[in-house]
Write a structure and sequence with these properties.
Among the domains are: 78-195, no CATH class; 309-449 and 454-508, no CATH class; 539-724, Chondroitinase Ac, Chain A, domain 3 (Sandwich), CATH 2.60.220. It is built from 15 helices and 28 strands. Strands 10, 11, 12, 13, 14, 15 and 16 form a seven-stranded mixed beta sheet that branches. A hairpin with a 6-residue loop joins β3 and β4 (118-120).
């Protein structure tokens, strides 16, 4: 056969496959996927990724989502423009120094970043003021350690010198020695050598085992649910040689293969515009645009994994390991810690602009609502065994400033408003506040991160004065930390001392519960796939009613006939349309009260009410089942302003007036395959029974499978949760 005939035959097969793929859903899982160890490719690309591209002209194609004003317009706008990109007259802000080692023959200084870049020793022999040993430099990056291991003084940058001096501002820099490499790349390179040398005996790059488990288990669960209707692949923000690829490269593969319906998936706990709109969808859509794929695509996003019963149970596992170390009956301050983002804005124009739209972030509200959801679980599980302190002395309730809620990767300088009510507490500020309040026991619970990578193990420790794990700890897989501090200072003291000390425990993440995490992750993604009108094939799903939901106007779905007649879900209107999307550096307000959310629904979507086969035997553990188990979807859809669910009671079930207060709602938990109590969201009404329609209504922030039960007279949420998850919480087999 001639080559052209072979090409035609191959093209026919490819086009047939492409046509077939147009009806399938491309599921693209993505995250930073930072490897354990040191990979040169990852280290080069991760810094490029953090700056993004610059617009070379005002009307450059495929830059619609860039921020800032030309000529200082960029893809992300996170850091001062002149730091990321050379600006005429300010070149040394971008590149003023180099990090080198002396060559073996002693004749040249060779760049540690790029061995093709070097300086003859004669170039600086007469200027010793230009040469500074790396270990003598002030730490250049807040979130990293630098050169010296604080545990034993080991110098990981031994022999490395800085030649030149970084610029401190827009003026002339007589000590600049540019070498053609962006200073930010060199700082990051050396800091990573230090950080990963602290964490690992070997610098051979490999993915975290938890990442591998979550990725493979999530793909398996989704494929089991949807079969060939979907294709699940992984792409990283920055690739590791031979292990991962860029997320946009994977997206381009999908597009070339004929996929037109995408689900873009984030792995973190907290929904935020930075990660979803810029780092995931923004990069992917730009790559598609540059390749000529400018129309015909539909994108749905699965933006976070927090707030679901599966996530709350997984975090309860983490909490348990720390409560077990504290005598029952003790007073315990609980500090829930998530990532944190700047607020409200930074300089928006000029060569030192950093115009990323932080004031428009939904992160602050979503992360805090996740905290409140978990707070209910912790109150129920441990509230009768410990004196839980979520609030500073003199405060109570669920408002943000009245809780020990903290940001782990933020510093006070990240919050530029001068109004204290517009700021967010850092983890160190929350620890110090709890110490000042007189607490002897403090537990720091990490949310947001699903594996024990550099952020929780080192970056938070560097920013918040948290001790590092020893080498022995890390070798045996101990990533949590416990220590004691003097009450009046950050000084670490022996816990056996008789001083007025405070015992602090800092949690690890979900490495030991990766399978549980993957179950919750997969079912969050399921809902995003369903928004494409594609439903699981492996379950008996029968939709009884459906209707569109508007992101701002809300909407209602109601079953009008049949056994589920009267089942309904009402999604609330957005009380503050345009907020926080319209905020800027002058007009803004920080999220404070989960009883008054800025956002209701996150998207426009079609909601549905259905039946689905689930094991409901454990519902009887709570009491007598009073309604059918009813699915409200898309599955695991989240709303911030609570939605109202109405469930009709089964015809034979009619509670007496005395029994009505014992009527409770329960949600099916995919991890445990049991039923968790529904905890009323902040500011919402408790469950109400309507005797005329023989139905009960209750507020939720999570879509799922719900049912009603008539509980025993002595039932409480504490007993309901503890009965299902006794002291020895077990992992998914």
């Amino acid at each position: 056969m001639h080559l052209w005939a072979l090409w035609l035959a191959f093209s026919a097969v490819t086009l047939a496959g492409a046509a077939d793929n147009s009806s399938r859903v491309a599921v693209l899982l993505t995250d930073w996927a930072e490897p354990q160890g040191f990979d040169p490719l990852y280290r080069r690309e991760v810094v490029k990724r953090s700056f993004g591209a610059r617009a070379s002209r005002s009307n450059e194609p495929c830059t619609d989502d860039f921020v800032g004003e030309f000529p200082f317009r960029a893809q992300l706008g996170l850091t001062p423009f002149a730091v990321g990109f050379p600006v005429s007259g300010l070149e040394t802000v971008h590149d003023a120094m180099g990090l080198y080692r002396l060559s073996a023959d002693g004749k040249r200084y060779v760049s540690i970043y790029d061995k093709t870049v070097s300086l003859p020793i004669e170039a600086v022999a007469q200027r010793p003021e230009l040469i500074t040993p790396a270990h003598r430099l002030p730490k250049p990056l807040q979130r990293s350690f630098w050169a010296i291991d604080p545990r034993d003084g080991r110098d990981y940058l031994q022999g490395v010198v800085m030649i030149g001096q970084p610029s401190r501002g827009p003026g002339p820099n007589p000590l600049a020695m540019p070498n053609g490499i962006r200073d930010a790349d060199e700082w990051s390179w050396a800091a990573a050598i230090t950080d990963f040398s602290i964490l690992h005996d070997s610098l051979r790059p490999e993915l975290s085992p938890a990442s591998v488990t979550v990725e493979t288990e999530t793909a398996r669960l989704l494929t089991d649910l949807f079969g060939r209707q979907i294709d699940v692949r992984f792409g990283a923000y920055a690739p590791t040689q031979g292990i991962t690829r860029f997320e946009e490269e994977v997206a381009l593969d999908f597009a070339r293969e004929g996929f037109r319906r995408f689900v873009l998936v984030r792995e973190t706990t907290d929904n935020n515009n930075y990660a979803n709109n810029f780092m995931t969808r923004g990069y992917i859509q730009r790559a598609l645009c540059l390749e000529g794929f400018t129309s015909g695509f539909t994108f749905e996003q699965s933006r976070q994994v927090g707030r679901t019963p599966e996530y709350n149970l997984a975090l309860l596992h983490i909490a348990k390991t720390h409560f077990d170390r504290i005598p029952p009956g003790s007073e315990v301050a609980v500090i829930y810690t998530t990532y944190g983002l700047p607020f409200p804005d930074r300089p928006a124009d000029g060569p030192f602009s950093a115009p990323h739209p932080w004031s428009k972030e939904v992160y602050h509200e979503n992360a805090y609502n996740n905290y409140i959801a978990f707070k209910r679980y912790l109150e129920a599980y441990y509230g009768d065994r410990y004196q839980l302190a979520f609030n500073p002395r003199g405060s109570s309730g669920d408002k943000r400033l009245d809780n020990y809620y903290a940001y782990g990767l933020s510093t006070p300088k990240d919050f530029t408003s001068q109004d204290p009510s517009q700021k967010f507490r850092t983890l160190r500020e929350a620890i110090d506040l709890a110490k000042a309040d007189g607490h002897q026991h403090i537990i720091v619970l990490l949310s947001h991160w699903y594996y024990n990578g550099r952020d929780p193990l080192l970056a938070i420790r560097a920013l918040q004065d948290i001790p590092l794990n020893s080498r022995e700890d890390l070798r045996v897989g101990k990533h949590w930390m416990n220590w004691c501090e003097a009450r009046e200072s950050k000084t670490v003291v022996p816990c056996e001392s008789e001083k007025n000390l405070v015992e602090i425990q800092y949690s690890e993440t979900f490495d030991d519960w990766a399978k549980e995490f993957a179950v919750g992750y997969a079912h969050r993604i399921r809902g995003a796939i369903e928004r494409h009108g594609v439903y699981p094939q492996a379950i008996d799903l029968e939709i009884q009613a459906r209707a569109p939901i508007d992101r701002e106007k809300g909407g209602t779905v109601r079953v009008k006939s049949g056994p589920l007649q009267g089942a309904q879900i009402e999604v609330a209107v957005d009380r503050y349309p345009g907020e926080p999307e319209s905020f800027d550096g002058q007009r803004y307000r920080a999220f404070t009260d989960p009883a008054d959310n800025l956002v209701s629904a996150w998207d426009n979507f079609e909601a549905y009410i259905a039946t689905q086969r689930v094991p409901d035997a454990h519902l009887s553990d709570h009491g007598e089942q009073m309604s059918a188990a009813v699915l409200f979807g898309p599955y695991r859809t989240l709303v911030n302003r609570p939605a109202l669910i109405t469930l009709p009671l089964q015809r034979s079930q009619r509670p007496s007036a005395e029994e009505i207060p014992r009527l409770r709602a329960f949600i099916y938990n995919e991890v445990s395959e049991r039923w968790d109590p529904v905890f009323t969201p902040a500011g919402a009404d408790e469950l109400r029974y309507d005797a005329r329609s023989h139905s009960a209504s209750f507020a939720v922030q999570v879509f799922g499978i719900y049912a009603l039960a008539l509980t025993a007279p002595d039932w409480t949420p504490q007993r309901g949760l503890q009965h299902h998850y006794p002291i020895g919480i077990e992992a998914v087999p």
